[in-house]
Amino acid sequence: MSGIRPAPSGADEELTRLGVGELGALLRRGEVTATQVALAHLERAERQNRALNAWLHLDREAALTAAGEADRRLAEARRSGSEALAACHPLLGIPVGLKDLVSVRGGPCTAGSRILAGYRAPYDAHITERLRAVGAVILGKTNMDEFAMGSSTEHSAYGPTANPWALDRVPGGSSGGSAAAVAAYHVPAAIGTDTGGSIRQPASLCGIVGLKPTYGRVSRYGIVAFASSLDQIGPFGRSVADAAVLLHAVAGRDERDSTSAPVSVPDELLALPDDGGAADWLRGRRLALPREYFVPGMEPGVEARVREAVAALEAAGAVIEEVSLPHTEYGLASYYIVAPAEASANLARYDGVRFGPRLGDGRDYVADYKRTRGEGFGAEVKRRIMLGTYALSAGYYDAYYLKAQKVRTLIKADFDRVFAAGFEAIVAPTSPTVAFPLGAKLADPVAMYLSDACTLPVNMAGLPGLSVPCGLSEGLPVGLQLIGPPWSELTLLRLGRAYEAITADAPWRRLEPSDLAALDDPATPTPAERLALARAAAAATA
Fold it and tell me: Which is the catalytic residue, given 99, 141, 212, 441?
């Protein structure tokens, strides 16, 4: 990655503030080139990444090559006429970021772990193929909690990521790099993965839109696995429409992934209504408000913003009724049996023979195996492997893993009953807190796990969930979560678009992340330096 560069011109800086739709319109009219757009975003990301650490790898050469190809395709479409131009996908020429567990042929794919340092993917993931096909410009790979295990992006082997709203706070996790990059205007849209909330929770904490699709909506081929029955790929954007466009590009059946569902991808994702139409569509929609999602320990400001959002939906014509999802309280415990158990199995391949560097002298396989995994994995990954191995061990499988899967069925049945009663979606908080300080929860894993209390039941049931910004608490973003039945992404996105429309004039909509200016200051501490200071302060007061 290049070193710090001078600030770009005002015109280039303005390009980075535009969303997918606005940039696409400029590109199709020929007012800017995809190369100009890519350069503006690359230079901003390269200049500011020291203070943010949102990117693990920026590939300037590959991005500019892809941008040049997009310019060629756009020029050819303009020569062919308006129909050819209209047929271009809205992502043609648009920069995107990929979480660093998505395979890009010939590029690094570390999953945030030392054990994959130096690994180069030999093939493209399915979603990489899809993005290339529509002409998106992949800028690089974003930071993440190691193997997607975490709720703060502090568990990356390559240092934590900061939140653009407050650089001394976390962006959420495990897709915090993607969320921070979108919020900081490094890229208009990005890809994350969500195993227990890892798209929606960082979207909430960074004040952007994040969608976890139905399990099976997007192929997991070429994605480094954490928990195979829970992982799902999804989009980040600064608007609902931008997230919808990215979902349209990557969703769909893939024969190489047996869990990829043969369900059509609606083209209506590319044509969400304008403000007037979106607000009108909301009238008469039945929405459920689960009492169990206002969990103990929820910050008062977060609850206030969510209830204000619910009231705004109701005032605009939605019909909202309180419901009960009684098995929600067991979601956290059952998730932290199922997910570590699957992680234990998936991460067995990183043994220094099949994957990962082999540490040791090669004379004692067991000793080399222990050293490879001992030095290659971080503390959180080791913790979850041990939990999962224990839950799957002889004598404990029935008591823990099997029982957790039965509870999972009960959680899904709760959702099924709500949707069978005629509710189109569920409205709830995304995260019980705003972004917390770097280091604040590292000494208490259970406190960290509670960050996902409102999101992980959705993964256990395989449902889609959308997080949209709904205001600020103590100057930091709060997210509203919308949950739907399987394959209801279009409905959720329409609801999210409607909420954007009815709150378009809210003062907080005109605000941008508070610490953006500090990202350009070479004296700004790195996130790793901030975390070290936080740990030193905690130790001094212990």
Answer: 99
Shared domain for 262 and 391, answered yes or no, is no
Based on the residue annotation, tell me whether 99 is a catalytic residue of this protein.
yes
Any alpha helices (H) in 194-252, and if so which ranges? 200-206, 240-250
Residue 1: what pLDDT? 34
pLDDT at 4 over 50: no
- In tens, the pLDDT along 299-342 reads 999 999 999 999 999 999 999 999 999 999 999 999 999 999 99
9 carries an active-site annotation:
no
Evaluate whether 105 touches 115 at the Cβ level (below 8 Å).
no
d(CA 415, CA 412): 5
Residue in 174, 260, 334, 488 annotated catalytic: 174
Task: Reply yes or no on whether the pLDDT at 177 is more than 80.
Answer: yes
Residue 12 within any structural domain of the chain: no
Cα of 492 vs its chain's centroid, Å:
17
Residue 540 pLDDT: 81
Do residues 114 and 28 share a domain? yes
Looking at the fold, whether 271 and 342 belong to one and the same domain comes out as no
Residue 122 has pLDDT above 80, yes or no: yes
Q: Taking 70 as the threshold, does the pLDDT of residue 9 lie above it?
A: no
Residue among 238, 292, 243, 315 nearest 477 (CA): 238
pTM for the full predicted model = 0.96
Separation CA 127–CA 103 (nearest Å): 9
Domain contains 3? no
DSSP string, 164-210: TTBTTB---SSSHHHHHHHHTTS-SEEEEE-SSSTTHHHHHHHTSEE
**Residue range of the domain that includes 156:** 18-325+410-533
59: tokens are 């590939």
Give 149-159 pLDDT, tens digit per residue.
999 999 999 99
Contact in structure between 423 and 319 (CB atoms under 8 Å): no
Together in a domain, 48 and 152:
yes
Element (H, E) at 290: strand 286-290
pLDDT class of 353 with cuts at 50, 70, 90: confident
Which of 152, 175, 178, 198 is flagged as catalytic? 198
Residues 384, 435 within the same domain: no
Closest CA to 336 of 404, 393, 415, 397: 404
